[in-house]
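Run log, item B.
One chain of 175 residues. Sequence copied directly from the ordering sheet:
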Amino acid sequence: MDDQADDSPIEERIGDALRERDATVAVAESCTGGLIGSLLTDVPGSSDYFDRSLVTYSYDAKLEELAVSRESLDGHGAVSAPVAEQMAAGVRDRAGTTFGLSTTGIAGPEGGTEEKPVGTVFVGRAYAAEWGSGGSYTEVSRHVFDGSRTEVKAQIARGALELLLDDVRADLSER
């Protein structure tokens, strides 16, 4: 990509990358409350690659809509790597998309702990490779952002899209 394209908003860059690979994405959002879906649909023609965004804020929504296990929710809490991983795989598989992206975190200003301070988020990414190839994967990363609730949500949403862009651009055949 040229430098000008890299200066464009993340929602445009991810759209271009998904189109180039003829790939699709679905999103499972908790702490971002639909912001990622909103960013993706700000781009004209996003229906070419964007399937859906499920806002699964409660434990019950994660369990019912994404098949996140009760054991993960009970044992690790909603803001955890196992839950983010299951959210990403769940939305990918339910939507039948190439990629699934998830966010679960603490946007604040309250609700943080010493172990999981305000601004903590887990971002899950899931890729569906061709059947029988063994190339499908899920990955989770933990991040901590600073700022007001609105600022944290915006940082999480854009940061999650940046992580997804890295995955889309990667040589998936080497995974």
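Observations after the first pass:
- The two ends are 22 Å apart (CA to CA).
- DSSP finds seven helices and five strands in the chain.
Flagged for discussion on Thursday.
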